[in-house]
Amino acid sequence: MNPNISLQNGELVTILTKKREAPFISLRWVLLVTYVIIGVIPLLLMANTILHSIQGYFVEERKKELLSEANVIAGQLASYDFFTNAENQESLEEMVLKTSQDEDFRVLVLDASARVVYDTGYEEVGKTYLVPEVLEALQDKDVAREQRNGTVYAAASIVGSGSQHDGVVFIADSLQDVDATVGDIASKAYIMMVTLLVIVIIVMIIMSKMFTEPLKRMIKVIQKMAEGHLEQRLEIKNQTHNEIVDLALACNHMADQLEKVDSSRQQFVSNVSHELKTPLSSIKVLSESILLQEEVPKEMYVEFLHDINSEIDRMSAIINDLLTLVKLDQKEIPLNFAETDLNKVMEDIIKRMTPLAAAKQIQIHYSKEKEVLAEADEMKLTLAISNLVDNAIKYTPEGGNVTVVLDADHQNSFITVTDTGIGIPEDEINRIFERFYRVDKTRDRETGGTGLGLSITYATVMMHNGSIKVNSKEEEGTSIQMRIPLHQNS
Fold this sequence. Notes:
The protein is 55% helix and 16% strand. The chain is an alpha+beta fold. The protein has a five-stranded antiparallel β-sheet, sandwiched between helices. Strands 7-9-10-12-11 form a five-stranded mixed β-sheet, covered by helices on one side. Strand 1 and strand 2 (116-119) form a beta hairpin. The protein is rod-shaped. Residues 1-22 and 442-447 have low confidence and may be disordered.
């Protein structure tokens, strides 16, 4: 069986059978790459920002600490007149040296002309030290700054008696310990991040597998369906309601519908073959009866030819109805919507059907509740309603009744045809609009018709954006209501 032909509305299945022309991209890798882009990179940027903030915090604290030490030393030097009292200089230098050694930073004492008077490193004594921090301290502005070479300079003015600036205490300290501390924190943070990243990637792989595996199973099932195995179904193990379960249910529902369509197609082909074979067999039997008999009376010729002509008419009617249905299915027959007087349409139909009903002593009762105007294709709608009334007459025993009612509300018109016929079994009500389907199999063709009338009616109503509702009870009768909108959406 060719699935591209048999699965009429299964375009999705047909598409999946085509050879992939584009490169295949795994959804699992797409999920992982997406996670890295929207998750890991921002996390790294945030971590980097936090580390810079931590480093900045430590540097600021070191600047405050050094500036405080510089002010303490400057206060002590000013108190003991470091620049004017030679007796105190040696002890003060020892104090400055001890502080420098304890705190592990370098201290320079400069006079008012920025000349180095004392240096704990013993390298700059006697030199003029014109760095911006010293110059600002001489202008009574204590300052501490981070330098490009990874050190911090702090300068505090030495204010002598009379508020004169006698000099400056200058401290230089390396930030290696700060860098080491921040580096240690960064190393631990990056190790934690890498560990977290590995854990998250593992979790993402597991989750993506949980997400993609059901999709892979669905694809395999759909591909098998595309090969013609319409009995394939997806097994739903997870009872939790989620999108994957909904998709699996939708795929199974699609498979049910495709199997139903394929079964209907096979049944339809079988029915068409049977319906066309019967009149052909009759024609063959009748023609052979004439050909094989000698000296056949003229009356028999005429009778047999009339029978042959009837069978040919029946075949023509079946073929014409089949062509009509095919065109309706493929939307090849355009609908000419126009304002239609449904009261007049119904009266014309009843007038035509009355002789057929009278032949079976059936009474047709027509009731119109109001004047009804609707946008419809008058010719096709007339055929659809006629089929309903004709069916009611055919399946109503002699002496029965057929009631036709026309009503409307502000949106829809309602045409109801009720008979007192043989009725329809409850389990067969949904099948009466199938092609060639007959409720009463024993009557077969005795009622006449092609078995396609209700199918044409149903297709016509659907093209009018309407609906049909059936109520029936065996041996009591059937009521079919047709709903047609008063106005068609353009």
